[in-house]
Fold:
Amino acid sequence: MPVASRPSETSPRPAGTRGVEPARPGAPAGLRLARAWRAAVAGVALTVCALPLQPTQAQVRLPAMGEGVSASMPLGEERRLGDQIWLEVLRDPSWLDDPVLDDYLQRLWSPLLASAQRRGEIGEDMRQQFAWTAFMLRDRSINAFALPGGYVGVHLGLIAGTAVPDELVSVLAHELSHVTQRHIARSFESAGRQTALGMAAIVLGMIAASRSGNADVAQAAIAGGQAAMIQGQLNFSRDMEREADRIGHLLMVDAGFSAAGMAAMFDKLETANRLNDTGNFPYLRSHPLTIERIAEAQARAGVGGTARLRANDEHELMRARARVLMEPSVPALRGHLEALQQLPRVRVAPLGTAYAAALSAVLLKDAPAAQTALERLREAAAPASRAAPGVGVSRWVELLQLEAALALQLAAAGDAGAAWGSASEWRRPELLLRGRVVLSRAGAADPALRDLHQALRTWVVRHPADGAAWQMLADCEEARGNRLGMLRATAEANLAAGKVDAAIVTLQAARSQGTRSRDADGVELAIIDSRLAELRRQRMRNAGERGVRTD
Structure:
């Protein structure tokens, strides 16, 4: 798993919350702590907004978008709370930065975010102050969630469980609307000090638990914090859900997706609800369906609206990737291989089945199986690849072949230069995968290495929180013999992973290295000094918020 997170290729960018999942008594301590943290996140963002409690007084009218929220929780305060939680998410073993799957997810998020800005749902202050970071969690359950400050998370189970992009987009648009309408802050407005204290108890308890490694501390924090919040629970969570549905519908339609996707997604959730959900659909518990919500979604889609949804080959490939990555155990990976092997060789395999088998073989490091599966994948993808070479299905297949070549040395990974065009034109998956090929082949004076170096430097300026890109830049600087640049890039990679102390230590080493070198780059040294001072101030602020002395 790469060292850190990164923003999307188009600013802004979103993220989310998870359903409460009990930890199995026999689970390893680290896994129990991760699940406890996910439960705490659900308590922070979803229990506050969505528990279907019976009102004890007359229904409260929802304020107009964001009305009266700024006084109780300013944008900056909500962002700081979100940042604090995000640092803990980065330490969760289930957090996943898969460049290929993330690239697809951002292609669905970006038009929603652009639509929210066009429509005025994201004002200029909110656009600048919120993080707008989307991320994925390696979890089989169908869930997505919104955290304070513009973070939105998606379980791989949700991606795998949607049949078409429009279904997935409907959930993303709904969660984005929870953020733009500031439902968490509006919850504080209604629930008052008790809710704020409950959230603080959970966040601080989870931070303590993550440091002590004691999952019992985490469970205690969840129980105590949620009990405090439930006492001050909202009376209008259903109104919030309907508002998120309504605005989410407008966003997805404006962004070019079909409103039938939301109706189709509700059909799936309603079916799961009727079949007595056994835990695979936490989204049902955090976002309870009502007859009104289902009817309204169906009315927006129109009569026969679901018939307008068409199968999408790209989505089928990404669903397959999500299925493999959400459970990468050996038996599960073998199961994907067997599913392909059971199909007659004379029959063209379904795209998703062939892709899942090929990726599974790569993860298992089974070169013969990978060669066979890739051959059948190319055969299945041939019609789409001929129709649109280099993009869509063709692009995803090429990237998987590159992953296989890097992992298994199956075949030539391709010309590291002209065959791929300029590195400055690569998207993130190409940059990180093709960059590995360049680094494995090129010498210090190789034009391909210089091209990659320049592309990475440009990329991290545009995406300063992309830890994987910073780490590759550090490797690139090392290959070029620039130790000062390597240390600075390593420090930025540590910072993107939430490791402020490690970043400071690395920058101090870079500063020491620079002062001993006569030909050190003065501009680079100035940047290092500035970043070092900034991070020291950040560490002091963080320590002050936790009540920890730094002297």
